[in-house]
Amino acid sequence: MPHSASAKKRLRQNLRNRERNRAAKSVIKTEIRKVLESLRGGDVPAAKEQLRTVAKKVDQAAAKNIVHRNRAARVKSRLSARIVKASKTRG
Fold it and tell me: Which of 25, 57, 69, 84 lies most in the core, judged by the most C-beta atoms within 10 Å?
């Protein structure tokens, strides 16, 4: 346990930030899941629309250092590649 006042404050900040970061990561994972579900269902237009939401959320998280910017780029790249592949097989 922290003893100094600054260490106590730091602990409070860390706990608060941890919850905020966890919530943001959970939202990103949920949005990614929605895109993948749309692709599994064969709904490419819906997946494209949901990709825009994922890209926005993951870029915001990267800007706030919640996730690494390379991870954000990787998520967007992989999802868009899946959408392109699905749109080619569908049409």
Answer: 57
Separation CA 77–CA 60 (nearest Å): 16
Q: What is the DSSP letter of 33?
A: H
DSSP of 34-53: HHHHHHHHT-HHHHHHHHHH
Backbone angles phi, psi at 52, to 5 degrees: -60, -40
Q: What is the mean predicted confidence (pLDDT) over 66-83?
A: 97
Pick from 25, 39, 27: nearest CA to 78: 39
Cα 65 from Cα 51, distance rounded (Å): 21
Domains in the chain, CATH or no CATH each: 5-90 (1.20.58.110)
The model carries a pTM of 0.87
